[in-house]
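Lab notebook, bench 4. The sequencing result for the construct came back, and we need a structural model before the next group meeting so we can plan mutations. Quick request posted to the team channel:

Model the 3D structure of this chain.
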Amino acid sequence: MPQGPYNCHGGLTLVPMPGFETAAKTIKAAIAQHEAEHKFRKTPVDIATPFFGTRASGEPFCRLAKEHIGGHDCVVLTSGPCTYERLGQLLFVLGYLAGRRAGRIAVVMDYFFLGRSDKDEDANNELALPGFVTHLLQAAAYGKLDRVITADMHAPQSVVGGPLGLITEIHLGRLLLEQAVAEARQLTDRVCLAYPDDGAAKRDAGAIEEIINRLGLSDLPKVFGAKRRVSSEKSDLHKIFGNIEGVRGSIVLSVDDEIATFGTTGKYARALKGTSYGAAQVWAVASHGVFCGPAINLMSAADCPVDRIFVTDTIPLDNRPELAPLTASGKIVVVSWLKALGVIVRLHHWDRDIRRVT
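Done. Here's the predicted structure in token form:
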């Protein structure tokens, strides 16, 4: 191993995709702060920002200098939802990093590309896509893709969509629930957890127990929705079961991995607030704020049944002006995971365990 401040992978370079330039600066600062606080060896961190454009013919191009790339440990910062443009740009960058002789390549894909397309849908003539995306990334990087770091996958089984150890999933439930529970407890002693289905409950079970122990709370009442998924875009809520009496008069934290169109979230909240259950308030708690289709209109409506929405910044909100009124009013609360991600990126660089940071 070389002597001095570098490890066997060379220096650390962050490569932010469009919209992630500010995130790269925050992650760099978080790495420096973490090392200073713990008196760790300083990691030199560079930022190499690619430029994308379109020629007169309509063909795309990319510019990325070799400076800070050749021989470096390069970490690409991006997130879904996956569009043709975003996927194409990512493939270009991976090819450039390999062509510029990067020492090692990792992709931080906060919200996994096409992760909701996790099952074949015969009725729609669709195939499951996570494995396909993984193979595209590997091919674009010419074998230099070492790891894909992602958060709270909609289908956790997608981690097996590539070679052993390629995809590492980070769980953000503790970050979100810790803040939501703490704020709810400042208002009332009656706090209840609600899940739209049993799958969501299983994903967050460990995080919930950790929060209960850390905050010294008694076992929080829990309820579950019986949800039947019609397709990757539609599901129906049939009933709610569990500790039903724990809902009445409570602030109910409705926990899921993401909020997309707000359809399921709104239906579930309206049911929880109905006369059968009688929740005082419903707060939605989700790792990924996709907020697509009718979501913004539904969240902004005067009769919206959800009182507050807690999300992380896995999908950046600061460059989405249409969400600014909702964040300014406190309807949307953003719990940033970028400081934790800085620690994760540093640990990845030094080949340490990254799973226990959050």
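The mean pLDDT is 90.
Will bring this to the meeting.
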